[in-house]
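Notes, Module 5: Reading structure tokens.

Key idea: the token line is not a picture. It is a compressed description, and you learn to read it the same way you learned to read a sequence, by spotting repeated patterns. We will look at two proteins. The first is printed below with its tokens.
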Amino acid sequence: MNTRSFPHRHLLGIQGLTAPDILSLLDLADGYVEQNRSVDKRKNLLRGRTVINLFFENSTRTRTSFELAGKRLGADVINMQASASSVQKGETLIDTAMTLNAMHLDVLTVRHPDSGAVKLLSEKVNCAVINAGDGAHEHPTQALLDALTIRRRKGRLSGLCVAICGDVLHSRVARSNIHLLNTLGAHVRLVGPRTLLPSKIAALGVEVFHDMRAGLKDVDVVMMLRIQNERMRGNFIPSVREYFHFFGLDAEKLALAKPDAVIMHPGPMNRGVEIDSDVADDVERSLIREQVEMGVAVRMACLDQLTCGLPETAGGV
């Protein structure tokens, strides 16, 4: 039987979590990595539990990862795409919450284009809620899987210098990573053009660089971000070609980082825009494939811990 070390009903963001909260999830996820590499990947830990993945935005990587995580723990998993639901017919979030409550589910995983929408749902449903990304606000499980990936390669997070590069302005991944890395004692640099870095972002305890070569000097981890055209209203970069020249990761810029620096990207990658293919596919330094693997293990750990405190009668929280 699983035991609870995560003292929260929901996982809505990294902000507000303590170092022990984060480390308990990472430690648990470490064990699930080994389970996922074994022949028998399935456990019955969540047998009888119902998990619904409700996505108001398209996703392949995150949704599939959550689906695998739930099924490997023995849960009944249902994927709901908002484009095929009553939401498209005018149903409000409150209506959706009432419908979900009537289904007596145990865990709801939500991705939504509006910041704060997942928190609103969490206040109206009688189950545990996991934020799978809300607007430009947070994406907590992505930050957790990034942290697990780094820790397994580097052996630690404290004291490392991590450069988060690119479209920070529109990135929920960047925000969650900033909170997590700062909480666990890493040193965070943000690198990007002024148009793609939020004003007053330095107040979050980060160093800001508008020159990529200066920002990458002697870092341990280079974390690239996707240009999020779908969230942009206006012209934030002159051209793709110019952006890659100044802020795309290639071998020349990477050479300024430490010799053993690793490369990360939350995906999907825009090759030739934010990262060069030769760098992305470097088997010695790129951890991009490992990030995908860690994603399933981290989401298993989150489902494990958030169901620990649920009563035997679903929806009775």
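Here is the second protein, with the sequence above and the tokens below, as before.
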Amino acid sequence: MRRADRLFQIVQLIRGRRLTTAAFLAARLEVSERTVYRDVADLQRQGVPIEGEAGVGYRLGRGFDLPPLMFSQDEAQALVAAARIAQPWLDPALAAAAESALGKMLSVLPGSARAAAEGLALFAPRGRPPAPVLARLQQLREAVHARTRLQIAYRDEAGRDSRRAVRPLGCFFWGEVWTLAAWCEARQDFRMFRVDRIAELSACGDRFPDEPGRTLADLFRRTRAELEASGKTMQSIGLGDYS
């Protein structure tokens, strides 16, 4: 890869993540971390507002943007494949938004790239969760975004029923089922709830603040520590570097 291309890719990778480490950039670009440090320093000298430092992570300063990018043929096919696989498992609102976004992306591609993307012979003809589960998933996703406390009626694997007040933190898909990661106020700890076992849910009417030890980042940090203690990584369970 030419150095000019690598510098461009560094900016794209940093702007696409909340915080990007040099180790992540080095792995993606197949260069040393020392090379990444040097490239980032050069970009900063050229006026690109990259904030952060070595050993912590980088992010782009507010207000910085680049012109819209044109997707390559392979990138367009990857987006089509991702949408086809994901849509059956998304809630109705998000599935419709994915279809709309995909249409917009295809509409601006050159003819050859669009034909290749639309003609991709890759399909995912699997079942989908029942409509009530997808409806609950949408409610949960919206509550996570709005940071709204929820009251849920839940039946666990042993068939025991309980009611919980929870702080919804994120929704996770495990290939067959969706789960809600939440701070459970009854247990004063993090819990995972299968969405298909949530019988009822309602908003408590108030929003919850970020509190140390009760955030999604705290859950990721705990999970990573537990996995590392057992010789595993976040990537090994499909969570990536989200902490």
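Summary for the second protein:
- The longest strand covers residues 161-173.
- The first helix runs from residue 3 to 15.
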